[in-house]
Structures are given as C-alpha cells and as structure tokens.
Amino acid sequence: MIEYQLSTRAPFSTSSLPSLEYEKVSSQSCDTKLHAALEGDSEHFVGTRSMTILRKMEQVKILRVKCKKYAVLTVTSVLLLLVVVYTSFHISNNINIQSPYVPRRTDVNVLTTWLAPVIWEGTYDYEILNEQFKKGNHSIGLIIFAIKKYTRFLKDFLATAELYFMQGHRVHYYIFTDRPQDIPNIALKENRFLHVIRSKPYKRWQDILFQRMKNIETQTAKQFYKEVDYLVSTDIDMKFNDHVGVEVLGNLAATIHLGFYGKHRTIFSYERRQISEAYIPWNEGDFYYSSAFYAGTVKEIYLLAKVCAEGIEKDKKKGIEAIWHEESHFNKYLLYHKPTKVLSPEYTWDNNFGTPSYLKKKRFIAVPKNHNEIRN
Ligand code: UDP
Ligand code: MN
C-alpha cells in the first residue's frame, strides 16, 4: 500500500491546493492514486476527504492544461487577427484589388457630364487596362514636330519616351522635321521604330503651329493608317517623367490645360471673335484643352486634324488667325466632338505651377525655354 503523504495541516481551499505540500508526493504516485481511485480500486482508496483533494488536484491539472491550450489559441487568434487587419489595410491601399464599390478619388472630378472618365493617378488598374489592350495587338504612333531650333528637344524627349511611353507595346515615332541631320542617334528598344517626315520650315512660328493639323491630316491618310491603330500627338518641348501608357488611349482623348484646371469657362482663352471658325460663345465649353498632348484612334485623329485644318484655312482666307493658333480650333472641335477620355493635367505639367495636392504624378513635363530665342 502506498503511503499517502498529503498533510491535512494546510487549510482547505481550492486556491491553496496546488501548494498543499504536494511536492512531497511524486506526481507519479498521485496519478496512480487518482487513477486507482477513479478505477474504484479500494486498496488505494484512502478516504472521502483525500479523494476530494485528489479530484480537485486533477481538476486543477486539467484546468492548467486547458488554460495552456486557451493561451495558445488566444495568442494564435490575436496573431491571425493582426495578419487579417494588416492585409486588409494593405489591400485597401492597393488599387489592384480594391473593391469596385469604393470611389477611387474624391478630391478630383473623375467623370465628365457626358460620362467620359477623367484619367488621374489612382483611378484605374493599369494591369487590367494593359492586359485588355494587349489582346488587340495594337500599334501606337507618337507624332512630334521638331522644326528649326526645336530639334534641340529631341534627345531628352526620345530618351525619356523610351523609358516611360507605352512600355511593352509597339511604338512608331513620327518626327516631322526640316533638319533630319539633327535627329539624335538613340538606341530604341525592341518593337519601337523611328520615322522621319520632311516638313517645311515655315518662316513664321505661328505657321509651324497652324500647319501641324494639315501635316497630321495628310500623313495619316498617306502613311499612319497603314502602320498604327492609335495616334498620340504631343509638343516636343517636353519630356516624360513618369509612366504614360494605354490608359490614355480610346476613341479620342484630350488633356485639360493645367492653367485652366478647375476654372470657370468664362475665363478659358477660347477664340471669342465670331468671325473665326474657332469661335466659342461665352456660355459654352467644358474644359480648356491643351494641344500639347492628345490621343485617339487613327480615324478620330484624322477627322480632328482635317476639321481643324479646314477651319484654319477658312480663317486664313478671311485674314484672321485664332488667338491660340491650332489650339483654338482644337478646342472648338472638342466642344462639339466630346472626347471619350479626358486626361488630367498629369499629362501636361509645368513645374512653374508647383505641385498642388491633387497632382500625384507629373507624367509629362514642360522643358523650360526662351520663346523669343527659340522662335526667332
Ligand atoms: N514647333 C516647332 N518649331 C517651332 C515652333 C514650334 O517644331 O519653331 C512645334 C514644336 O513641336 C512645339 C510645338 O510646335 O512643341 C508648339 O510650340 P511651342 O511648344 O513653342 O508652344 P507652347 O508650348 O510654348 O505654347
Ligand atoms: Mn510646348
């Protein structure tokens, strides 16, 4: 018979149980007693009181094991919760998998009244757009004019376009110039091609600007339509500073002029003389668009250039020049042929205008120049 050593000197309370001089009894002997007692072995049965102690001790033991389990469970749950909170925070900050019900931007207008999206950083998932676009196996033409002294901008323009413009797509650069010898020798990436188109060095800089429309119209009908699906036309006194991709492509896309963003139509510098083909009444107009960056399908760009060139020609016959040259005719055209995408000023920025809080990216920026020096 195993001697039961538990002293009853200790006061009886559940809380004192674990320290009840229990150390004197080996856990093995205690287990054996308990087991025996539970099995109904009378030889090990020491008495009702001792049995109660044993049961309580066993309960404490079970409780401790349970507590350990609960502790492990609690710690695991807390860790899991932290992971879930972190992940959802991360997801909510990641546009790629953001809920389609959450508005993308609330600090800027993202939709025109004719339901064309306004393209701002943070309003679209580029991966989706790019994958969709790739299915069409489309080519994009980038039209630029580098006449007379403006060839000086070519090097930076092309180098930055190689970094940021339509990465991963087939691109044709169409350079209208009177100085082909000035075109820098830049190594183009795969699937990117450069075409030189001879253009007249008009004496007056105004004529160079006006003639852009006629040149685009003619060359689209002659060459561009065979080689590309989309056309993008930009100024050359600019450089790419961040990603510019297929988000700008659609039937017709025009950029809001940074100087007139958020302004009322009455201060837009539209042509206000009724005699001009570019005339826009004071009570009309959506945005003042910049002609330094626009895009569209070959067909839409052809139509735009053709109508503008016709307006310019008619004005010329009347002996009038629109206030902002081809840009005035461009704005007139867009008033009655609404763009299907409106590009935010991210696509034609000038650092002289600082960095307003709504501007998250400066994708295409003006290179400073001295108008008098370069145009004469
Ligand atoms: N341009 C040109 N040579 C000139 C004047 C103008 O090639 O002598 C082209 C060039 O592509 C330029 C565009 O016409 O970017 C518009 O002119 P500019 O950039 O001077 O106009 P701004 O941006 O100052 O209104
Ligand atoms: Mn310019």
Short description:
By secondary structure, the protein is an alpha/beta fold. Helix content is 37%, strand content 14%.
Helix content: 25-40%
| SSE-based structural type | alpha/beta
> Outline, from the CA principal axes?
elongated
Largest sheet: 8 strands, mixed
Could you say how many structural domains there are in total? 2
Strand order of the largest sheet: 1-9-7-8-5-2-3-4
**What percent strand?**
5-15%
Description:
- The protein is α/β, with parallel strands linked by helices and 376 residues long.
- The protein is 37% helix and 14% strand.
- The protein contains 8 helices and 10 strands.
- The strands form 2 sheets. It has an 8-stranded mixed sheet with strand order 1-9-7-8-5-2-3-4. It has a two-stranded antiparallel sheet with strand order 6-10.
- Mean pLDDT is 87; it is low at 1-34 and 36-46.
- The structure holds uridine-5'-diphosphate and manganese (II) ion.
- Uridine-5'-diphosphate is lined by residues 145-148, 150, 205, 208-209, 235-237, 292, 375.
